[in-house]
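Predict the holo structure. Ligand: GLP.
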Amino acid sequence: MDVRVFDDSASLGRFAAEHVLEAISARPDAVIGLATGSSPLSIYNAWAELARERELNLSGVRCFALDEYAGIDPEHQESYRTVITNTVVGPVGLTPELVHVPATVASAAAASAYEEAIAAAGGVDLQILGIGRNGHLGFNEPGSPFDSRTRRVSLTPETISDNARFFGAPENVPGEAITQGLGTIMDARKLIIVAIGEAKAKAVAAAIAGPVTEQVPASIVQRHPDVVYVLDRAAASLLP
Ligand code: GLP
């Protein structure tokens, strides 16, 4: 596991974006896993900036989002489809048809179709991940099985309250989601996990240095062969 600590989110974003561009230069149709949330934005901004500076053609890149709210209108401004479109696909210049987001219907059939689509693409080359305050990855809340696959899940009150800022009030946050499972995430060939801010320090320390337990979903990545953590000083502050 490679743990990097940065003074500011711009240099963190550049470092992580170089990893993404490396995967794409190895294979122009690389499969990149996309996360939502505030933390990955510095990576997407740097990715877009470097692509512009270097005049890269990224039209062959394929992407799979980690998760989506269940039952939300896909056109809603806070659906992960909309967020991914606005923060990554547009700015970076990806081909919208090659960017997949789980279906908001979140049925068992939609979940297995998503797994099949990832497999048919040859698997994920590089997965970008944020981490929840409770150690979640995607919407795999504490207690999620390590071998879980894409499925419908319920959000914990903590996650609902964390995400209320996007919806105005907790009661507007969808209570369920469809998420890639921890087993799905572990199948990606490389993981980049980003955490910014003091609120993440406890989860980061538990995930990196604590026991591997389903109570801390991100702790499973201790068993992944190629993981890079990109942290700011605050998020790294409780690391031993
Ligand atoms: C949401 C997403 C997660 C993300 C988490 C943290 O719950 N489903 O994938 O890691 O938020 O988001 P933020 O980076 O905004 O703290």
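Strands lie at 2-6, 31-34, 62-65, 67-69, 99-100, 126-129, 151-154, 176-179, 190-195, 227-232. The chain has one domain: 2-226.
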